[in-house]
Design brief:
The complex is a heterodimer of chains A (about 425) and B (about 140). Helix content of chain A is about 5%, strand content about 20%. Chain A is mainly β. In chain A, strands 7, 8, 10, 11, 13, 14, 16, 17, 19 and 21 form a ten-stranded parallel sheet that branches. Classes of the chains: A mainly beta (about 425), B mainly beta (about 140). Chains A and B meet through strand 20 and strand 21 of A and strand 8, strand 9 and strand 10 of B.
């Protein structure tokens, strides 16, 4: 038996009295006006709140498990940490509501309006969000595994670091969405519009991306392994550091794609030149993301193969040139022009060398130097999972941008300018 | 049931030794010694001193002696910091700012298969007094 009747609840709310921790289980509150009510930690499990008005109500940590909230108005409500497992919120108004860390596992939110709602770290496993409006909503770090979001309006939604494994986004509108570091493994996105979406470091392994639009999308460092890309549109898509390959591109509609480090469109490769660009990889197509991204440019490229040995040499490489080393450089003095890239392949070794200049150093092999500094002024140092660096690094003003992949071996001393 | 966490909230400061059997999240400031299975330092957090954890994920500021099995770093690593561990990850930056800013630091991570193993310690009690133990003796034997 609930603690209060419908009339008592309405009366208390009208008087501005708190219903904190009240036992209202299974109570029929359909069409009740509960605007601004304080129901913090109340138990509303199985309650009927169909078409109820709960605008700006305090529902923090409330239990609404299995509650019926069809077409309820929860605009601006505080639902932080609320338990809404298996609740029915079909067509509900949740505009601007705060659902941070709420549990919405298996909840039905079809056709609901969550414009500008906050759901960071919320649990939405198996939730139904078909044709819902989620514009500008925040789902950072949320768990949406197996959730259904078909036909939903997800314009500019924030899914950073969200788990979206096996979620269904068919025909969804994701223009300008933030999907950085999101996990979309085996997600279904056929026909979705991802134009201008930010997908940096997103995991798209095994995802169905057929007929998606990735125009102007930022997919740098994203992984597409095993993804279905039939009919996917790549136009001015930024792909630096991704594992995008000719095999993956088969069946996709590729216009021109950008391989610039900064994703600023400065290295656009037309469809006609894509195969030559990507096939320039030096390790038979299994290059790491960085290696793909810095694959041979038409000019300014030098390659030192396995078996090449340079000893006591002084080398200067022009700005923006690309130098790949699979051989051995011993006690060499290397100067890199601005933006020049020195890539040490898996078989490559630079021993006792010194590298100067504001270039980019990518290490998949070994760099060992007892000189102090062994590396000075480098703008970026990227050490892949097979890379090993033993050196003192003198950073430029503004610091070196370091990137280290798990598995790398480092004996580094970093010094500031 | 949510995993239990020891939390140092933003605006809080802990000085001394903090030992925990559950994970620690720092949004405030910790100065001293910290031992825990996992340590998560938020962007607003700072840990200065000696840290020994299995897993470190820092987005804030760290300095001192950091020892962790797996390390995921962004944020700021102050001067005079030594980081040792088995595995490190620093994600590449996308803009003008580095993901992680390193001061004057020492980083020793991973095991280099090409590095010679450390010499075996000399065992006592098997050789004659004042002579090297047989295991440590060098040169040909006749």
């Amino acid at each position: 038996m609930p603690e209060f009747t419908f009339e008592e609840v309405i009366e208390r709310v009208a008087r501005g009295e708190s219903l904190e921790r009240a036992d209202l289980r299974e109570l029929d509150l359909a069409k009740a006006n509960l605007d601004n009510a304080n129901l913090r930690r109340a138990d509303l499990e199985g309650a009927n709140l169909e078409e109820a008005s709960l605008r700006r109500a305090n529902l923090a940590s409330v239990s609404l498990r299995d509650a019926f909230l069809v077409r309820a108005n929860l605009e601006g409500a505080n639902l932080r940490g609320a338990d809404l497992e298996s609740a029915n919120l079909e067509g509900a108004n949740l505009r601007g509501a705060d659902l941070s860390r709420a549990n919405l596992e298996g909840a039905n939110l079809e056709g609901a309006d969550l414009t500008g709602a906050r759901l960071p770290s919320a649990q939405l496993v198996d939730a139904k969000l078909g044709v819902a409006t989620l514009e500008n909503a925040n789902f950072a770090n949320a768990d949406l595994r197996n959730a259904y979001l078909g036909g939903a309006n997800l314009t500019a939604v924030d899914f950073q670091n969200a788990i979206l494994e096996s979620a269904n986004f068919e025909e969804a509108l994701l223009t300008g969405a933030n999907l950085r570091d999101a996990v979309l493994r085996r997600a279904a996105l056929p026909g979705a519009d991802l134009s201008g979406a930010k997908l940096e470091r997103a995991v798209l392994e095994g995802a169905d991306l057929s007929q998606v639009s990735l125009q102007d999308a930022d997919c740098r460092h994203a992984t597409f392994q095993g993804a279905r890309l039939k009919g996917a549109k790549f136009s001015r898509t930024h792909l630096y550091g991704s594992d995008f390959s000719i095999e993956a591109a088969d069946g996709a509609e590729v216009d021109e794609v950008d391989f610039s480090v900064a994703g600023d469109g400065s290295q656009l490769i037309p469809a006609a030149g894509l195969a030559a660009f990507l096939n320039g990889k030096t390790d038979g197509g299994t290059a790491s993301p960085q290696a793909v991204a810095v694959a041979p440019a038409p000019t300014n490229r030098r390659y030192f193969g396995h078996g090449d040995v340079l000893r006591d040499a002084s080398l200067e490489f022009d700005a923006d040139s690309i130098v790949e080393v699979d051989g051995r450089f011993l006690k060499c003095n290397i100067t890199l022009g601005q933006g020049a890239q020195l890539i040490i392949g898996r078989e490559g070794l630079l021993d006792g060398c010194q590298v100067h200049g504001s270039g980019i150093l990518v290490v998949h092999g070994r760099f060992a130097s007892d000189a102090s500094p062994g590396i000075s002024g480098a703008r970026r140092i990227i050490v892949g999972s097979t890379g090993s660096v033993r050196a003192t690094v003198k950073q430029p003003a503004g610091h070196t941008h370091f990137a280290f992949e798990p598995g790398c071996v480092l004996r580094l001393k970093t010094e500031t300018a | 049931m949510a995993e239990k966490l020891t939390t140092v909230e933003e605006g809080s400061e802990v000085t001394g030794t903090l030992k925990s059997t559950c994970g620690v999240t720092v949004s405030g400031k910790v100065s001293g010694e910290l031992h825990a299975p996992t340590l998560m330092i938020a962007a607003t957090g700072a840990v200065h001193g000696t840290v020994k954890v299995e897993k470190l994920h820092s987005q804030g500021e760290i300095s001192g002696r950091i020892d962790a099995d797996t390390i995921e770093l962004s944020g700021r690593i102050s001067d005079q910091t030594t980081i040792t561990g088995r595995s490190i990850e620093v994600k590449g930056s996308n803009g003008d700012q580095p993901t992680a800013i390193f001061g004057n630091c020492v980083i020793e991570v991973g095991v280099d298969p090409n590095e010679p193993p450390a010499p075996a310690p000399v065992k006592e009690g098997k050789g004659k007094k004042g002579q090297p133990a047989p295991e440590a003796a060098t040169g040909a034997t006749t």
